[in-house]
Amino acid sequence: MIKHIVFWKIHKGGTQKERQQTIDAFRSKTNYLKTVIPQIRQATVGSNINSGDTFHVCIDSLFDSAEDLESYINHPEHLKVREFMNQVSYEKTVFDYEF
């Protein structure tokens, strides 16, 4: 099993309302991805409840194998969501691990 976690800081200088709208849109897009990419075992979008200079949103997802993760990463629908997040984010970190 592969756990794939990505954290983003979004809307530098933006309001909490702008961030929440983006998080809601990202959650909706992620729910759509779960219907079209069979390799996704689980995917949850979370918003940070801490304030300050923190990452604002994350996705916590699960895949059966590194190959399944790679299929997800390169899937055309995922690439569209990645582009959306690239447009609204100013910092990102990725953490993948096998268990």
Description:
The chain has 99 residues and is α+β, with helices and mostly antiparallel strands. The protein has three helices and four strands. The protein has one domain (2-98): 2-Layer Sandwich (Alpha-Beta Plaits), CATH 3.30.70.100. The chain has helices at residues 16-36, 66-74, 76-88; strands spanning 2-10, 42-47, 57-63, 89-98. It has a four-stranded antiparallel beta sheet with strand order 2-3-1-4.
Q: What class do helices, strands and sheet pairing give? A: alpha+beta
Q: List segments where confidence is low: pLDDT < 50 over at least 5 consecutive residues.
A: none
Alpha-carbon distance between the two ends: 6 Å
Percent of residues in helices comes to: 40-55%
- Let me know the average pLDDT: 97
Based on the structure, what is the oligomeric state of the protein chains? single chain
Q: Indicate the overall shape.
A: globular
- Tally of separate helices: 3
Strand-residue fraction?
Answer: 25-35%
Rg result? 13 Å
SSE order and pairing:
Elements: E1 2-10, H1 16-36, E2 42-47, E3 57-63, H2 66-74, H3 76-88, E4 89-98
Antiparallel strand pairs: 1-3, 1-4, 2-3
Helix pairs in contact: 1-3
Short description:
By secondary structure, the chain is α+β, with helices and mostly antiparallel strands.
